[in-house]
Every structure is written in C-alpha cells, then in structure tokens.
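Title: Prediction job returns without error message
Component: structure pipeline
Severity: low
Priority: P3
Assignee: unassigned

Description:
Job completed but the reporter wants confirmation the result is attached to the right record. Sequence as submitted:
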Amino acid sequence: MIAFDAAGSGPTVLLLHSTVCDRRMWDPQVPALVAAGYRTLRCDLPGYGETPVPDRPYDRARDVVDLLGTETAAIVGASGGGRVALEIAARWPDRVSALALLCTALAGHPPSAALEAFGEREDALLEAGDVAGATELNVDTWLGPDADEATREKVRRMQRHAFEVQLAVTDEPEPIRVEADLSAITAPSLLVSGGHDLPDFGRIADQLATRLPGARRLDLPWAGHLPSLERPDEVNELLIRFLKAG
C-alpha cells in the first residue's frame, strides 16, 4: 500500500513527485489547487516518503491508479513522477483528463554524457558510504539558482530520507516493466523544461511535443529541474491556467 493524502473537493488532480523528493514536494501546490476548486491527491512512490520498498515485484503505475478507484484525474508529474504519469496515461487513457509534465523523465531515453556522469558520481558516493555527499550532489544538480536555502534544505531532507529507506533494503525487488505505447495517450499535455536543467529533459519535452496530442511546450529559462519548488507561485499559476483550459 502506498502512502497518500487528499485535500479539497472538485475535479481530481493527482500529483506525482520527482524521485529526488517525495510527496512533500507538492506542499506549495496543494493550497493553490484546492483554492482553485480542485481535489488534490498525492502519494509517495515505493521507496520514498512514507511508502516502504516493496517486498515483491511491484507495478508503480497500477498501484497509483488503484488510488483513484473509479475516478478520472488530471495528472501533474515531475521528473520520475512524469515517467509514471506517462505510463498511466498510455495504459489507462480514459482515466486521464490532462497531463502536466515538469522536467519529465521518459522510459528508454538514452542519457547524455552529463546525466551519465551524474549517475556515476552518485553511485560512487553511495558505494563509499557517503550518503551526505550523494545527497548534496542531488541538491546541487537538480535545483536551479532561484531556489532559496529553505527549498534546498527541504530537498535535502527528502533525498536523504529516500536514500536511507532504499539503502536499508538489501534485496530490493525489481519493478514490473510494462511497455507503454505513448500513441495511446489522448489527454492534452503541458510539457515544461528548465533552462538550468540537464539537457536531457529539454530534449525529452521536445520529443514528447511531437508525439502527444494537443501538446503545449514551455521552457522556463530561470528554472532548474524542480521549478514547482523554485518558483511555486509562478508554477501554480501556469498549472491552474492549463487545467482550467482543459
């Protein structure tokens, strides 16, 4: 069972966090979405926040869809949460009314040299037992220049906790891999990238803009990888505008 919380009433907006964070990353978005007339549902993916690493193979997309029951939802996904959102929208297109993807990851994307170098450095730090160093590497890599120290500390806590949860498991089961056909997606989409992010995520957004129906492509020159934390008021406004237009 994955941990979740819900607030507000109205059409449901499902918030899927980056894998640098957990569902607390959406703290600045929930009040704004509720005030705009939406029910917000957010969860911790397996191995993050209050959701433990499963003890058997697991299907992240199905676990999230199960939270919705029979509801249809708009989905806002950040980074790794965007990858899960894309899978949900492809496997259950009738359950997704809109997709807002912030610096989304994409299954099968070949990493750039910069992203590979980041992964190798993170692995080396964790193998050396330097969890603090690996945490700081993530904070420095994924937050843009507009993130204040309180935001950096919030991401630091979330990433450190994720490492602690995941490293405590010696035999982590593999997630169930499902080949999702993106051509099955019917929901209109908003594809956001950041000018200070690694190049992979702008390229992914460009690629998806040619593949998804009704796609709107937006680059935020000021943003790093986590714009919803870096300038929450600005991102809240663009999300609500997109959802209302849907």
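Comment from assignee: result matches the submitted record. The longest strand covers residues 96-102.
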